[in-house]
Amino acid sequence: MGTVIWLIGTLVLAGLELAAGEFTFLMLAGGALVTTGASLFGIPLWAEIVIFGLASGALILFLRPWLHRRFRKPAALDTSPKALVGAKAEVLEDITRTGGQVRLDGSIWSARAIDPAFIIPAGEHVTVADIDGPTAVVWKE
């Protein structure tokens, strides 16, 4: 009976971890899982509680900090021109078949439309579809 209770406790603690996301409940679920395995050998209740405490404490002290470092690492800053894809821009000079200009991320870029037959007048707002060298390839929303 104790094995089933520890297994249910494992599942409940793992479910709580989904809501919290801090790895604490996950470590407690790991301790309960270790205790589930130990309770299969028919050890007394006080030994199960000691095993749960030791296993959970060890997981919290050793595994949780490593998980925090691993999963809480900040994303790398992308400063390449490709990071501008999807950004909004304002048309400064009509975008025709031969080119045009847009204000993109605070600077002025040469631009061309995805469809060369399409003319985008100045003052319109466009979205950057691609960066082709020094030229922003844009489309009107």
Spatial arrangement of strands, main beta sheet: 1-2-3-5-4
In DSSP terms, counting alpha (H) and pi (I) runs of 4 or more, how many helices? 3
Radius of gyration: 29 Å
Averaged pLDDT: 91
GO molecular function, one term: peptidase activity
Pfam family, one: NfeD
GO biological process, one term: proteolysis
Domain NfeD-like C-terminal: 82-140
Could you give a short description of this structure?
The protein has 3 helices and 5 strands; from the N terminus they run H-H-H-E-E-E-E-E. With 141 residues, it is α+β, with helices and mostly antiparallel strands.
What does this structure look like?
The structure is a single chain. A 5-stranded mixed beta barrel has the order 1-2-3-5-4. The protein is of the alpha+beta class. The protein folds into 2 domains: 1-72, no CATH class; 81-139, Beta Barrel (OB fold (Dihydrolipoamide Acetyltransferase, E2P)). The model has no long low-confidence stretch (mean pLDDT 91). Helix content is 44%, strand content 23%. A hairpin with a 6-residue loop joins strand 1 (88-93) and strand 2 (100-104). It is rod-shaped.
